[in-house]
Amino acid sequence: MPKPLSRRRFIGQASCAALGSTTLLSSLASLMGTNKLMSTSLEDPGDYKALICILLAGGNDSFNMLVPRGESEYAEYAATRTDLALPRESLLPIDAPSQSKQLGIHPSMSHVHQLYQQGNLAFMTNVGTLVEPISSEQEFRSGLKKLPLGIYSHSDQIQQWQTAIPQSREAIGWGGRMADLLQETDTNTGISMNISLSGRNVFQSGQNTLEYSISNRGNGVQGVEGYSRWDGNQGFLTDLRDGAYKNMVDRMYANVFEQTVGSLTSQTLESIESFETAIQQVAPFTTTFGEHYLSQNMRMVARTIAANSLLGNRRQTFFMTFGGWDHHNEVLNNQEYMLGVVSRAIGDLYTALGEIGLEEKVTTFTISDFARTLTSNGNGSDHAWGGNAIVAGGAVNGGDVYGDYPDLYVKDNPLMVSRRGNLIPTTAADEFFAELILWFGVSPNDLSIILPNINNFYSPNSRQAPLGFIR
Fold first, then answer.
1. 321: which strand partners?
2. pTM, to two decimals
3. What angle do CA 286, 290, 292 make, to 5 degrees?
């Protein structure tokens, strides 16, 4: 028998349903955080922290982002990757105390290399979506282990990195579940703690939370566009627009569903105004941001973080997508440019945060659908599984690689599930996320609410960090 719907749950579901009903109301409602939880087990954190998620959509060939450079390991890598192997002498060398292998970074990633050398950036290696640990190809094929749905599917894997529930197709993300718990710590009820520069996304969608969508242009606001700021007419036209719009959304609707939509839309006008006012008060940065939209996204993130006290946010998450990583062709040429873009954007943000003294309060991390096959398809690589990711920030125990960097030979390698070079992850995405979530201020007692599978990989009652990459 279906459980009866509480009023709170109904309104939460009505708000989400409303997003699909009308294009205008959908775009406006996406600016809002709705229906915060009535209570939380968390204490007021009392300080500021932010997480920034960069989705490299399409599947980053990340074993050309972090590459073995020791003589024997490089020979193994070059023999497997053939025409996709980077020249050994081109790699940016790093020391990785936790690894037995000597490693190097893609030559286009000079900003990432610099942050790594400074101890403010680390890599996660052979990380991927898992329901439970899988130690070998034999276990993988045994039928005794639960596997993620659609391991090589773009849509499934992009969704699973955002939900942290790889055994089912969910619409609620772990950033959304985290915001449901923490939203009460913010004093601004009109602007969600989850802010997106890529519109609607699964990561930031919760039961009671929606992302607040902004742009990297102007003062970042989206939604109802203002009229041209003609001399002498600006105030009149603005008042005319706002008055007419408020009259429209303040009508008495015929049912609760419509009243909910009207309330969300009306509040959005106030949210737009308060966000724009706060951003306008932020002093310009001296950091020169790159022209690519990813760096421009980071410029707007830095401005929003600088305005956190004006916005009333003590916790914020940011989400952005950088697409185009499905390199079945021309992987070397494409990565040379695109990894450079990622590196510059991460470096620009860190420099800007240093200007306002918040570099230790902000942690940036990358996710991607999956890694790519280690073997070449003739000019590119295809869909695989475990790969490498970046985490950066002043709180990061940088200058190291966390997890177990795998052997890259294919034949008789116990972690390979195909002759194409598809690696079973040896670090679960849950472990990666758990450390970020605990740093963010979630109680260990609530970790399994956000990461339902975490007990398969880590005990929330442990006195040790899941991986140790954050101070």
1. 55
2. 0.84
3. 145
Give the Cα-Cα-Cα angle 293, 295, 300 (nearest 5 degrees).
90
What separation in angstroms does the CA of 13 have from each of 206, 261, 263, 276?
Answer: 11, 11, 15, 29
3-state secondary structure of 324: coil
304 lies in some domain: yes
Q: Which domain holds residue 162?
A: 30-225+249-456
Q: Domain count of the chain?
A: 1
Summarize pLDDT for 78-124 with one digit per residue, the tens: 999 999 999 999 999 999 999 999 999 999 999 999 999 999 999 99
Model confidence at 3: pLDDT above 60 = no
**Contact indicator for 345, 292 with CB cutoff of 8 Å:** yes
| Sign for the pseudo-dihedral over CA of 43, 46, 47, 48 | positive
Residue whose structure tokens are 């932020």: 282
Return the residue matching tokens 């459980």.
3
Do the beta carbons of residue 420 and residue 143 sit within 8 Å?
no
CATH of the domain at 255: 3.40.720
By residue count, the chain amounts to 471
- As a whole number, mean pLDDT of residues 392-399 equals 98
Q: Does 278 map to a domain?
A: yes
Instruction: Tell me if 340 is assigned to some domain.
Output: yes
Nearest partner of 319 among 439, 168, 174, judged by Cα:
174
Residue 235 lies in a domain: no
CA torsion sign for 324, 156, 294, 280 is: positive
**What confidence tier does 335 reach under pLDDT thresholds 50, 70, 90?**
very high
At residue 273, the pLDDT reads 84
| Span 172-214, pLDDT tens digits | 999 999 999 997 777 666 788 999 999 999 999 998 888 999 9
